[in-house]
Amino acid sequence: MDENKRFELAEFLKELRDEKDALEEKIKGLNVDIESVTQELIEDLIANESTGFNYKGFNFSLVVKEYPAPEPERKDELWQVMKEQGFEHLFTINSQTLGATLKELKANNDDIMPEWLDGLVKIAEKSSIRISKGRKV
C-alpha cells in the first residue's frame, strides 16, 4: 500500500472515530433526559395510584423489576444452601474474573498458559488501531 493511501485511510478512520465520539456524547445527553422524564412519569403514576395509560396509540405501563443479590457477609452461606437445594448449576465463574485470573496466571508463567488449563480455555485475539493525540515537541 502506498503512503498516500495509508494516510487517506488514517484520515477517514480518524473522521469516523470523531463522528462516533460525537454521537456517543449525544446519546449520553439523551439518556440523561430519558431518565429524568421517566422518573417524573413514574412519580406521577405512583402519586395517582395508576399502573399505566394509553396515549396516541401507545401504552405506557409502570413496570417494577426486582434484582436480587446476596447479602455480602452471607454470600458463602447462600451458595451452600442453594447447592444443597439442587441449584449447583447456577454457579459459574464471571467472565471478567476469569479473564483477569487467566491473564495473571499467564503473566506469572513466562507468558504461557499453565499446562493444567490445556483444552479448558480458549483465548481469542482482536486487533484494533488506537488513535491518540500526538506529543508536543
How does this model look, in words?
The chain has 137 residues and is mainly alpha-helical. The chain has three helices and two strands, in the order αββαα. A two-stranded antiparallel ribbon has the order 1-2. Strand 1 and strand 2 form a beta hairpin. The longest helix is centred in the N-terminal third of the chain and has 45 residues, at 3-47. The radius of gyration is 26 Å and the shape is flat. The two termini are 29 Å apart. The mean pLDDT is 86.
Write a brief structural summary:
By secondary structure, this protein is mainly alpha-helical. The protein has helices at 3-47, 75-84, 95-107; strands at 52-55, 58-61.
Give Rg in angstroms: 26 Å
Given helix and strand content, the structural type is: mainly alpha
Question: Outline, from the CA principal axes?
Answer: flat
Q: Span between N and C termini?
A: 29 Å
Q: Total number of β-strand segments? A: 2
Beta content: 5-15%
* Helix amount: 40-55%
Number of helices: 3
Read across the widest sheet, the strand sequence of neighbours is 1-2
Could you spell the SSE succession in H and E letters? HEEHH
Q: Provide mean pLDDT, rounded.
A: 86
What key attributes describe this structure?
137 residues, mainly alpha, two-stranded antiparallel sheet, 50% helix, 6% strand
SSE topology:
Elements lengths: L2 H45 L4 E4 L2 E4 L13 H10 L10 H13 L30
Antiparallel strand pairs: 1-2
